[in-house]
């Protein structure tokens, strides 16, 4: 059974009632950790030399790979919420005990893909560096914005089939990184447009996020992640199994009790 985007969002809202605190705190904690890593990288390699820039990018990559393991832990929290299972703040460390190298490999592959998709931006950056006056910068700015938008669109469509890689790794401690990437592609075969529409449907909340000074972003992010979990559970068959189990329980509950012959004679 396929659920519409509205139905998936409704299920997500129901699952998140009273459950926002832990995932929001987990997201904020990871954001603070990412900020700390960025500051460390800037202090260590803040020069303008080619070597400093290369080392800065390298340390940034290493930090992002470490953060990916925490991100997978947040996925574990959302999956537990969607499945109505116990969860806690400590779950952000869950994947560190479940062969974290698998998550790191997936993150590395996705990072390489994103870097390839960012080629238009890299090409335009040269124009920005060569601009000497404010007028030249203004002429280059629309080109830079166009290249950035193109890179974002490319990244979205190229990485879309791998959206459930982390969730698959969380669900199967024995699954390899390659199997997770292939498994995500398989799950989303014929459903990529649905996922894309779900992403786009949250764009309307951008105004709310902007008006709140981006404070509301963490709640919108939690809502979106919970919705992605519902789609994942639909595609792997969990929602259908749950629906059938509920239907069976209802049928058993209202099934008429057969009287035996003794009671009939009585």
Helix fraction by DSSP (H/I, runs of at least 4): over 70%
Strand count, sense and closure of the main sheet? none
Task: Specify the structural class.
Answer: mainly alpha
Work out the count of structural domains: 1
Termini gap? 48 Å
Name the poorly predicted regions. 261-266
- The count of helical stretches stands at 13
The 3D shape can be described as globular
Task: Give Rg in angstroms.
Answer: 24 Å
Let me know the average pLDDT.
86
Structure in words:
The protein is an all-alpha fold and 266 residues long. The protein has one domain (5-254). The chain is 75% helix and 0% strand. It has helices spanning 5-16, 21-44, 50-82, 100-117, 119-130, 134-159, 165-171, 177-187, 192-201, 206-211, 217-235, 238-253, 261-265. α1 (5-16) crosses α11 (217-235), α4 packs across α6 (134-159) and α5 (119-130) packs antiparallel against α6.
Write a concise synopsis of the structure shown:
This protein is mostly helical.
SSE layout:
Layout: H1 5-16, H2 21-44, H3 50-82, H4 100-117, H5 119-130, H6 134-159, H7 165-171, H8 177-187, H9 192-201, H10 206-211, H11 217-235, H12 238-253, H13 261-265
Helix pairs in contact: 1-11, 2-3, 3-4, 3-7, 3-11, 4-6, 4-8, 5-6, 7-8
Keywords:
0% strand; disordered C terminus; 266 residues; mainly alpha; globular
């Amino acid at each position: 059974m396929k659920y519409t985007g509205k139905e998936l969002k409704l299920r997500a809202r129901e699952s998140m009632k009273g459950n926002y605190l832990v995932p929001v705190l987990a997201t904020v904690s990871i954001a603070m950790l990412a900020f700390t890593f960025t500051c460390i990288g800037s202090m260590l390699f803040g020069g303008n030399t080619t070597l400093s820039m290369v080392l800065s990018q390298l340390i940034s990559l290493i930090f992002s790979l470490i953060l990916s393991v925490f991100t997978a832990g947040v996925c574990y929290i959302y999956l537990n919420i969607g499945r109505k299972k116990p969860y806690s703040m400590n779950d952000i460390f869950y994947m560190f005990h479940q062969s974290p190298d698998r998550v790191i490999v997936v993150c590395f592959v996705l990072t390489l893909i994103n870097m390839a998709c960012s080629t238009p931006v890299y090409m335009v950056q040269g124009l920005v560096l060569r601009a000497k006056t404010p007028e030249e910068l203004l002429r280059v700015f629309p080109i830079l914005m166009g290249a950035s938008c193109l890179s974002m669109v490319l990244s979205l469509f190229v990485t879309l089939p791998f959206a459930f890689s982390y969730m698959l790794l969380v669900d199967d401690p024995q699954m390899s990184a390659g199997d997770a990437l292939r498994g995500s592609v398989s799950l989303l075969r014929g459903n990529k447009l649905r996922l894309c529409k779900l992403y786009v449907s949250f764009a309307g909340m951008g105004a709310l996020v902007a008006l709140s000074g981006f404070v509301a972003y963490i709640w919108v992010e939690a809502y979106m992640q919970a919705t992605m979990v519902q789609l994942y559970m639909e595609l792997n068959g969990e929602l259908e199994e749950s629906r059938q189990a509920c239907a069976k329980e209802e049928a058993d509950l209202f099934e008429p009790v057969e009287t035996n012959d003794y009671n009939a004679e009585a």
